């Protein structure tokens, strides 16, 4: 009898943990596949995510398409915070945009010092960025981030934080903050 109760308790713990991680997994899978409308089904604060993907120029398109393509994640653990909330720890791997731009600027400075005209045009910058970002050896990083999930009538939903979005996209948001 004690074994049966223990088995039932463990079963309940495993299944309740799966509901919490399923919300995060479904969200991340849909983001990776650029199905933003489906990803939003797993989010409480939908205003945190733009509903469509629009690029202002070729460079933005290049960068974000590479970030979507290279995004990988691993659920590490789940911590219950009360009856209706939990924190799902996720390790996200993606292109290290800070390192990409450091390499880009280093390469451009090298080219400028080798050139007599000391001028780099947009096309050269774009080509160099494309070479780096599409390389098999593009710099990547793994960052841990906490997704807070809350139980709703429709199951568990993510209370999305700006840090989660920034981590998913290679900390590209931090680069913008540093340039302000």
Question: How would you describe what is shown here?
Answer:
It contains 7 helices and 4 strands; from the N terminus they run αααββααββαα. The chain is of the alpha+beta class and 180 residues long. Strands 1-2-3-4 form a 4-stranded antiparallel sheet. α3 (58-70) packs parallel to α5 (122-133) and α4 packs across α5. The longest helix is centred in the N-terminal third of the chain and has 31 residues, at 2-32.
Q: Largest sheet, described in full?
A: 4 strands, antiparallel
Beta-strand segment tally: 4
Strand order of the largest sheet: 1-2-3-4
Molecular shape: elongated
Mean pLDDT: 84
Beta content comes to: 15-25%
The helical percent reads 40-55%
The rounded Rg comes to: 21 Å
Through-space gap between termini:
64 Å
Q: What low-confidence regions span 5 or more consecutive residues with pLDDT below 50?
A: 4-17
Helix and strand run: HHHEEHHEEHH
Counted by DSSP, the helix tally is 7
**What structural class do helix, strand and pairing data support?**
alpha+beta
């Amino acid at each position: 009898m004690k074994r049966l109760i223990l088995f039932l308790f463990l079963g309940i713990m495993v299944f309740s943990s799966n509901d919490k991680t399923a919300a995060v997994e479904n969200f991340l899978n849909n983001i990776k596949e650029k199905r933003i409308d489906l990803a939003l089904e797993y989010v409480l604060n939908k205003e945190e995510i733009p509903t469509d993907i629009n690029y202002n120029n070729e460079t933005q398109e290049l960068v974000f398409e590479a970030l979507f393509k290279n995004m990988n994640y691993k659920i590490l653990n789940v911590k219950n915070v009360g009856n209706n909330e939990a924190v799902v720890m996720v390790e996200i791997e993606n292109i290290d945009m800070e390192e990409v731009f450091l390499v880009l600027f280093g390469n451009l400075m090298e080219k400028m010092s080798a050139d007599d005209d000391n001028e780099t045009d947009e096309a050269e910058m774009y080509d160099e960025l494309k070479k780096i970002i599409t390389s098999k050896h593009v710099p990547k990083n793994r960052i841990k981030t906490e997704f807070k999930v809350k139980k709703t009538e429709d199951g568990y939903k993510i209370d999305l934080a700006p840090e989660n979005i920034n981590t998913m996209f290679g900390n590209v948001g931090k680069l913008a903050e540093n340039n302000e």
